[in-house]
Amino acid sequence: MLHRRGGMFDPFQQLRSEFDRQLGGVWDNLASVAPRFTATRVFPGVNVWQEGDNLFAEAEIPGVKTQDIDISVVGNELTIKGQRPESGPEAECHRRERRVGSFTRVIRLPMEIDANQVQATFKDGVLLVTLPKHENVKPRKITVSAG
Amino acid sequence: MSTQEMTKANATETTERATDGRGEATRAYRPNVDVYETNDELLLCADMPGADAGSIEIKFEDGTLALHGRVKPRQSEETAYLLQEYGVGDFYREFQVTEKVNVAAIRAEYVDGVLKITLPKVDAVKSRKIEVQAK
Terminus of chain B with fewer CB atoms < 10 Å: N or C? Predict the structure, then answer.
């Protein structure tokens, strides 16, 4: 099982309150759709799966520049950090739903990772991290010797 | 978080309005947006990560701006996720634009998964500063 480390301090709480206040304003044709993004939701969401000798972690972080993404792996813990810039000046803002500022996610993976071999790509706002399993946890075929 | 809950941090799932190539309703995510207004233009930024830039459709008709970004699946349907916090699918959203907009001059760009649409106002609605002449 995977676990997520949830901190007590939530930098997005204030921002969410801000969203709440701005909802129901002009512009939106789909006001009848409950805006569920205001729920307690971590940013960014992460999907994790495994394939062969690799684990993969994917996150949607649109608007972040490649150089502002910081990925580190220690043992079985993957940390994704980044910074999302403001899209424009607040004074001229009608509606602000996109979360901006810095974010950190720590994902505990179900096995140890070979940190030296971790690779990441970022395209169209989608981050994909390839996490090769550590030699220690790869299945080994044991040959039974006839004795 | 339940793995069944497919709302994204970037979007809210909705089944409304988005249509596939045959005009049939399809499931889509409602992207989060920022909207800005300056004296000259309206600027809309929508989070649409993983969209195929060439397939993004922007329609402006009768004061309604509609965005549709098509997103191809990135993993096979059989993928067994160890952790799944969001789903992948099209983005769709409509807006009512009450400002008078120069439709021919609307422009858009897609960078790092963010769609930015600039809607220039028509000259008549821009606010003007009136100089008072001293006599």
Answer: C
CB contacts of B98 in chain A (<8 Å) are: 26
pLDDT tens for residues B106-127? 999 999 999 999 999 987 767 7
Q: What is the DSSP secondary-structure string of chain B?
A: --TT----SSEEEE-SS-B-TTS-B--EEEE-EEEEE-SSEEEEEEE-TT--GGG-EEEEETTEEEEEE----SS-TT--EEEE------EEEEEE--S-B-GGG-EEEEETTEEEEEEEBPGGGS--PPPPPP-
Q: Is the ipTM of this complex over 0.95?
A: no
Burial of A55 per CB tally in 10 Å (0-12, 13-18, 19+): buried
Cβ–Cβ < 8 Å for A37, B12? yes
* pLDDT tens profile A27-59: 443 333 333 343 446 899 999 999 999 999 999
Averaged pLDDT score across all residues of chain A: 78
Indicate yes or no: pTM above 0.80.
no
In chain B, residues 10-69 whose CB comes closer than 8 Å to chain A: 10-12, 14, 16-17, 30, 32-38, 43, 45, 47-51, 53, 64
